[in-house]
Amino acid sequence: MSVNQTTAPDDVAAEPKTPKGDRTDMVGKALGLLVLLGDEPRGASAAEISRRADLPFSTTYRLLGSLTRDGFVDYEPDGRRYHLGLRIFQLGQRVSNHHGFAGTALPVLRRVTEQTGEATILSVRDGHHHLTVNKVDGPQAFRVTSDPGHLGALHATAVGKALVAFAEDAEREALLEELALDPLTEHTITDRGAFRAEIEKVRRQGYAVMDEENENGMRAVAVPLLNPQGHAFASLATAVPVFRLSMEALLAHVPLLQDAAAELAARLPQR
């Protein structure tokens, strides 16, 4: 439920003055707050958001009030925390439908999952991250946690490596130079030379793998969805827990993923 506030929370001792330059581009500031909230699944207080956004508390509080009023943000009075609202979900669903990620892609993902018995994930690149746009869970009890809307690391995931490897030449080179190769597990590739070699390997073999590099206990294989110029506009993956499928058994699904990727590439708008 959306709740409008009339008084500021008491978790801020002092409020900085607002420079004149901060009075402009309020739309950009509001959108920035939404992006920050998207990285906080448990929500955040106005003070926390203000600090992360590097905005005066009064500006943050006023913008959050407007976003709450219009349904883009929800306010939880008990915990004094803000969360993304249902209006964001509605808009996201419209974007997904517009790009075919729901209506067009979902039946293909379901078919792949029926044949593999495992989760199938469709992702696109969003700057220096991959964005999960659709996922179908397998029938097993163990779920993959990369739900639609999840932003993940390009360097530590199969879908991310496929997107980097088959990006346009200039974009690929920029990513190879600029990506922060943060260690997410003890298996994450953090050496830039090793990552470059990994991407070249992906380009040669036509698929990418992740073996506990992003999350302990999980492995995945991904293939690119290619446009007519041979560049990836999305990637498709099968993800499994390591105890259920060996890497060799997982790689046996590559032809199935490649067929599904070719079908999706022919049917999805490539924007």
TrEMBL record:
InterPro entries, A to Z: ArsR-like_HTH, GAF-like_dom_sf, HTH_MetabolicPath_Reg, Tscrpt_reg_IclR_C, Tscrpt_reg_IclR_N, WH-like_DNA-bd_sf, WH_DNA-bd_sf
Disordered as annotated region, ranges: 1-25
Domain HTH iclR-type: 24-86
Stored Gene3D superfamilies: 3.30.450.40, Winged helix-like DNA-binding domain superfamily/Winged helix DNA-binding domain (1.10.10.10)
Keyword Transcription regulation belongs to the record: yes
Keywords: DNA-binding, Transcription, Transcription regulation
Domain IclR-ED residues, every copy: 87-270
Keyword Transcription recorded: yes
Protein name, entry field: IclR family transcriptional regulator
UniProt lineage: Bacteria, Bacillati, Actinomycetota, Actinomycetes, Micrococcales
